[in-house]
Amino acid sequence: MTVDLVWRSLPLSTKELSLSRVLRCGQAFRWNNVNSVWSFSTKDRIILLKQDDQNLHYAYILAESSKDRNGPESTLLFIADYFNLDVKLADLYEQWSQVEKKCRPGSKTTSFAGFPGIRMLRQDPWETVVLFICSSNNNVKRISKMCHSLCHEYGTFINEHDGVNYYAFPQPELLAKPEVEDRLRELGFGYRAKYIQRTASMFMDNENYPHITLDSLWELRSKTSEEAHEYLIELCGVGPKVADCISLMCLDNHDVVPVDTHVLQIAVRDYKFKGPKTMNKIAYNQVKQHLRDLFGEYAGWAQLVMFAADLSDLNNGINQVDGQAIKHEVADMKVEVKQESYVGKVEQVVKVEQVERVSGKRKIKTDMVVKKIKTEA
DNA sequence: TTTCGACCTCTTAA
DNA sequence: ATTAAGAGGTCGA
């Protein structure tokens, strides 16, 4: 089946939004990039995005079950909400640069100037809870892989585009069954399999956890960050760090700074933090407060940029570090095809591995394309 | 009440 | 090629 793809445009500079940074900097893990087009599935459609210097271009493909009669408008509303477009990023960057200049008077370049267009997303709360349960003791690459296999295994089929099948993110009722844990372990979730199944079942268990529901989770958006924190750490697999990530990335608590050992080091090295240098509850809260006081109402956003500036992955495909162009040369390309059987279906996975030289250094960029070739009863 | 080891798997660096 | 450390932690003893 072919779908007519209609692209629409929205004036938006790359300084306000850099898709390739925002979608790869460790806050969202479910976007695909196929032929320079970013794609993502919501509960009722596939969203497609690309951009040039001055415009964001968007298109959508509805699920066959969708009855939406005003697709262009609802897609634009989703985009405006998801990317927090009411927040003017350039102003914040300016403000943060001043803070950095004050703390590091000697440094020539700020981390903010070198990494423009990184803004906080406003993601779906349930999805964000699961994403960040997966994030513990883990890396961006593996988290992305886990998210995709979770949707593929349990999510409702939305539609197909360019040979790729898209699935919605599975709701709690689909993940609450006890047998989910074993299956997730098979899929490589490790000890997080138990956390996800248990947390999902908490949302389904009205007897023991009447206060934990999808409605009450969404209502946290209108409550304080302290209330959100208290609620979230009750969930299985959610500690203080993960709770703060969730709070920041989907519950509108823009000033919350999730702290890890890495952030502690940055706070000590660059931002004059004087306090405990090993991580514990006291240190956690002190660092969090210190950075919040320093960077203000959008401290969590500032921290995302600092984290992104340190992510080596993020430099792939973005041709700038300290104002110097990075050379990309395709050195080699490998295509691997393998069959995978799941319950009731056989699928072909095509793995394309592109080996590049980035400024002389060998890097492997992997794009996963899943193609369904056959379905059996 | 705080500290510390175990925990799954995968990627990266040596 | 092979190995070891580390990954934006959490849990329970």
Automatic annotation (TrEMBL):
It catalyses: 2'-deoxyribonucleotide-(2'-deoxyribose 5'-phosphate)-2'-deoxyribonucleotide-DNA = a 3'-end 2'-deoxyribonucleotide-(2,3-dehydro-2,3-deoxyribose 5'-phosphate)-DNA + a 5'-end 5'-phospho-2'-deoxyribonucleoside-DNA + H(+). Its EC number is 4.2.99.18. GO terms for cellular component: nucleus. The keyword Nucleus applies. Residues 134-311 form the HhH-GPD domain. It is an enzyme of class 4 (lyase). InterPro entries: DNA_glycosylase, HhH-GPD_domain, HhH_base_excis_C, OGG_N, Oxidative_DNA_repair_enzyme. It comes from the Eukaryota. GO terms for biological process: base-excision repair, AP site formation; nucleotide-excision repair. Keywords: DNA damage, DNA repair, Glycosidase, Hydrolase, Lyase, Multifunctional enzyme, Nucleus. SUPFAM superfamilies: DNA-glycosylase, TATA-box binding protein-like. It is found in: Nucleus. Pfam families: HhH-GPD, OGG_N. Belongs to the type-1 OGG1 family. This is DNA-(apurinic or apyrimidinic site) lyase. It comes from Sungouiella intermedia.
